[in-house]
Design a protein that fits this description.
With 139 residues, this protein is of the alpha/beta class. It has a single domain (2-134), classed as Cytidine Deaminase, domain 2 (3-Layer(aba) Sandwich). It is 24% helix and 37% strand. The chain contains three helices and eight strands; from the N terminus they run E-H-E-E-H-E-H-E-E-E-E. The longest helix is centred in the N-terminal third of the chain and has 14 residues, at 6-19. The two termini are 20 Å apart. The model has no long low-confidence stretch (mean pLDDT 94).
């Protein structure tokens, strides 16, 4: 399960709306507790994909900077997010082909549907994970 404060959910949706029609992406920080994670931080990372309307690729240097900032603030990297401006509200074939972080949570944001979904990459496929939107929390 992924617990997401309403303020973070709203910020991810706003980022996706602002970036459309291109996909946006970033890193999620928080606290891991076994099979449950609580998001307390989110960091935007530029999408450097050659075709950002249909793919995302986190800028490698900015990704490392974001991950370092999360850890310096006392959190852990609990996953990554990107948008699907026109859907679908689930991982695409491209997402499956390019997923690399086994055990990581991949959050997909669909602004037109106000959807925030989560999947964990097993190393072979995505497994859906529940998302619970909770009260606002500070970083």
């Amino acid at each position: 399960m992924l617990v997401v404060p309403r303020t973070v959910r709203d910020a991810l949706l706003a980022h996706a709306r602002d970036g459309a029609p291109e996909e946006v992406c970033g890193v999620l920080g928080g606290v891991e507790d076994g099979e449950r994670a609580r998001v307390t931080d989110h960091r935007r990372v530029p999408n450097v994909a050659a075709t950002p309307e249909t793919r995302y690729e986190l800028d490698p240097a900015e990704q490392l900077t974001a991950m370092g900032a999360i850890e310096e603030a006392g959190g852990a990297v609990v996953g990554f997010y990107h948008s699907h401006p026109r859907g679908p509200p689930r991982p695409s074939a491209t997402d499956r082909a390019e997923a690399t972080w086994a055990g990581a949570r991949y959050v997909i944001v669909v602004p037109g549907e106000e959807s925030v979904g989560c999947w964990r990459w097993t190393g072979e496929d995505f497994e859906r994970e529940d998302v619970r939107v909770g009260a606002s929390e500070s970083r």
